[in-house]
Amino acid sequence: MSVPGHLRPPQWFTHVVAVLLVVPPAFIQTRFGGTTLATVPTALLVALAAAIVLMRVRFPRSAVVAALVLATVGMAMGGPVISFLLAVLICVFSVARRTNRRTTLVIALSAAVVLTSVSLLFLDPLWRDVRAVIQIFAFIGFAAAAGDAGRFRQEYIEAITERARRAEETKESEALRRVAEERLRIARDLHDVLAHQIAVINLHSNVAAQALRERPDDAEKSLSTIREAARTVLGEIGSLLSVLRASDAVSAGTQAPVQGLSELDTLIADFTRSGLSVDTRVQGDPYPLAAVADIVAYRVIQEALTNAHKHGDDRSALLNLDYGAAAFEITVTNTVAASPTPSLSGHGLVGVRERLATIGGSVATERGPGPIYRFTARMPEADGTGIRLPEKSLATPAPPVEGTS
Length: 405
What we know:
Blueprint: H1 11-22, H2 40-54, H3 60-76, H4 81-98, H5 101-122, H6 130-211, H7 216-245, H8 249-255, H9 264-273, E1 277-283, H10 291-311, E2 316-323, E3 328-335, H11 347-357, E4 362-367, E5 372-378
Parallel strand pairs: 1-2
Antiparallel strand pairs: 2-3, 3-5, 4-5
């Protein structure tokens, strides 16, 4: 795109203007020399000049050459000088408008030299003056400069239009990327919120079913736990839905369920009420984590303890937080059944892997020795004052780790 279509004159209009600039001066006798359309040869030459300016759009360079040849022949025959000069000027303008600046300079200088030579050879003494030579060069230079300015303006508009188009495409792709990331974040949060509570409900529903007749007190306790877990699930789902329904980013940010290691005691108490005994140990001097890393650490611990609760053999887990100088590590250890536990690539562990990837972390799981299952998450390098996040965004998720969820 150069100029909007409704602002550009039609092509036929520019052709009409060019012809009107060439033909009418041939009917006027001027003091610059040359005859009017008194003879058939001069009339044919003027008609040929009009035809040449019509071909300037498709063949700009050839049109200049043809106009110079015609001007030479016409001036030698004593034809209307002004018509031939205007034909050359129009063709030079067209060359400057449709080619590059180097080509324009060469053609304009050549045209000025040719016209000056022809005028000195065939025209009246009036043209054999320094002022006339300067005028010829000035007219050719003006035509070339005007055409070059028009070409530059067109290229500038095209560059602006292309930049705007690319910016719009980038904006759309960025919006799509953010939508995809937000969907992934919501899916992770939904899994983190529901996985533990659903596991609790499933576990205690089995306990209640088995103890209903012989141990009614235990059954009542399990049903109470199920009721509390269901209430928690409904509350968390309501929070997520409020985020999705938020009309703007500010309200969404204020309603989003953001939890970090400051809520770790509450999380462990929740697991304890659900029947999982968690022994927490801290190594090193605790230091604050960056905001994003703090949230990721909380979610990682939540997922690891959920797996320990669902698949553990003795309803106990050891949570070890290692505030090392080189890295912050989270390790959750629990016992599993003697029979081999099936290796699953659950969405929870995939989500953990992806969450850690956003801050340059890693996760590993291993079994043994014996019925021991160990989950280890390593956060990026630390400097004693907080996690230093790498300058990288979420890339293609790494292969899911072996584990259960």
